[in-house]
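Lab notebook, bench 4. The sequencing result for the construct came back, and we need a structural model before the next group meeting so we can plan mutations. Quick request posted to the team channel:

Model the 3D structure of this chain.
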Amino acid sequence: MGDRFPTRVGVPVRRGIARHPVSDSPEDIQGRLELMDAAGVGRQLLSPNHPPYLPDEADCVAAIRMLNDGYAELAHRYPQRIASYVMLPLPHIDAALNEMERGLDQLGCVGVNMHIICLNRSVAETEFEPIYAEMSRRGAVLFVHPSGTGICSPFIVDYGYRAAVGTSLEDATFVLHMIAKQIPYRYPNIKFIVPHLGGPVPMLLNRLDKQGQSQSGHPNLAEAPSVTARKFWYDTVCYGSKAAFTCAYETFGADHLVTGSDYPVLQDYEEYKETFAYIERLGLPKGDADKILHHNAQRLFGLQNGNCSSFCPFYDSVRNVDASGRIRLAIDQKRAIRVSGIQILGPGSDIQVSEHAHQIEAKSVHMVFTSPVIQ
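Done. Here's the predicted structure in token form:
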């Protein structure tokens, strides 16, 4: 991926992901918005590249609160373009529950973000169950993302495939661990979002339903693995692979695919706008492409009936909501946004936009993960 080391203090040359607009400096914000505009993206939902999961509880809470406050402040500064998830100070369960409450009820976060591995432990372990219970009670959106550990395997890491393959395997292990622990079955109100089309999960469901429920596997599941896996939503980041996308599309259906961007990591390999544009060239039925690009996130965030409270807590400027669920928002004194659909675009998130005179037609929202924006 090239030089991934951050810029040293006092060194003007940008290195690694800092070559892309990722901070909250005015210059980077302007650069970010220009990329979004060029791609037809109206809003990004932010989550961190690597949240600071730390063994010491006080340090972990302080770091996570700083991160959440920074993202929330950024979202308040640009409420039409940016929103965020609340990160949790894992593995500290009581502190995580407190921070979830603060993020969702006070900071206006739109959902919860967790990484799939916490200090080399799966977040499916029993100790994390109070978090799932609370998210289910709230009906929260949970966006998960790989931790970049190569599933803690020397078979992956030592051979140089931590990022290229390990991330997708981590996505798959999350789904598999959720199936094994029956967490979606027992906590049915959580809206799970898994990145990268779920890794190899789409092509394994038939085998999981058969061999995976044998005596050597999990013979006492309350529901077939394929039933559990199809309850999740999956983002569309796949480096433009038609084969990968088609496999997930045929396995999960158009209703459970939402767009993603992996911003800024993917931008070392393709243009930001290409991350979404490729979907329109796959030859999908127009109605299915439209769902994926413009409507699935609207349904996921509960906007189809005009309910904006679960997605746009920062929008004090709502003027009216019509019967179709369109929300009219003031951007400034003369211009308005009309939200006709939202879609999740990747680890972190955005809206596709076309501009007409004094209005912007917002078509979709996408998830983006990025590095922390706190200076």
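The chain has one domain: 40-370.
Will bring this to the meeting.
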